[in-house]
User: Fold Ectoine/hydroxyectoine ABC transporter substrate-binding protein EhuB from Streptomyces osmaniensis.
Amino acid sequence: MAALGALGAAGCSRVATASTEDGGDLLDRLKAAGVVRLGIAGEIPFGYIDRNGDLTGEAPELAKVIFKRLGVDKVQPVPTEFGSLIPGLNSQQFDVVAAGMYVNPERCEQVIFSDPDYQMLDSFIVRKGNPKGLHDYKDVVEKKAKFATGTGYAEIQYAVEAGYKESDILIVPDQVAGLNAVEAGRVDVFAGTALTTREVVKKSAKAESTKAFAPLVEGKPHVDGGAFAFRPTETKLRDAFNVELAKLKKSGELLRILKPFGFTENEMTDLTAKELCGG
Assistant:
C-alpha cells in the first residue's frame, strides 16, 4: 500500500480542465504536459501496480497505446479505492478512470464513458464437481446455497434480483477471498466475472469455475461491458479515444493487448456506451 501511495503521489501536478470551448480542451492540455493521470483501483487484472512497482492491467496497458497515438507519451497511476474513482475523477484528482469499470445507467449520470473495450459474463466458483448443481442465480436461490461475492460487485444486485436476500450474502474483498471461502466450506458459491473466476481457480485442487452465463436484469439476459470514464465536459477527449479504440478493435490489436490478462475472443465486443447507458 505504501508503494501504491508513493506512485500515486509522484508528479501529481494537475492539468486544468476548464475550457470555454464545447467538448473541453483536456486533450490539448494533456499533449502539452506529455502525461495523463489514470485513476486505478488496484484490481487484478483490470488496473494495478505489479510486484516490480510498475503500472499494468488491461486498462492501463490499453491506455498507454491509445494515449500515445493521441500524442500523450506517458501515463501516471493514481491509485484509489474503487468507490472513489468517479468522485476522484470529477474532483480532478486524475484525468481518466482506467479500471475496467462497468458501464451502467447510474454511472452514466455522473461521467461519460468510452465504448467498452471488453464485455463480460458472470461465473461461479464452486467446489470440484459442483455438488449442488449451481449454474445461475436462480439455482442459488432455489437450492438455498450459501452465497458470497465481492465488495461493490454488480453480482450483489444480480443475486438480489433473482430473489436472494441481500443481508444473507457474505461480502468478501475479492475473488481470492471468495475462492478461500468456497474451499473452506464457509459458502457454497462465490459469484464474480467469468474472467476473474476462471483465472483464480487455475491452481485450486478443491474448487472450479462454472460455465459463463448472462445474469437476468428485469427478466432479460444482461451482458456487462467495461470502459474508460471521463468527466462529462470532456467529450472531445472521449471521442478521440473512441476513434483509436475502434481502430484497435478492427485490426485485432485490442485482443493482443488484453490477452496477457486472461481475456479471450469471447470478451471482445461491439457494445456501445450508449447501449449500456440505457439509450
Summary: The chain is about 35% helix and 20% strand. The radius of gyration is 19 Å.
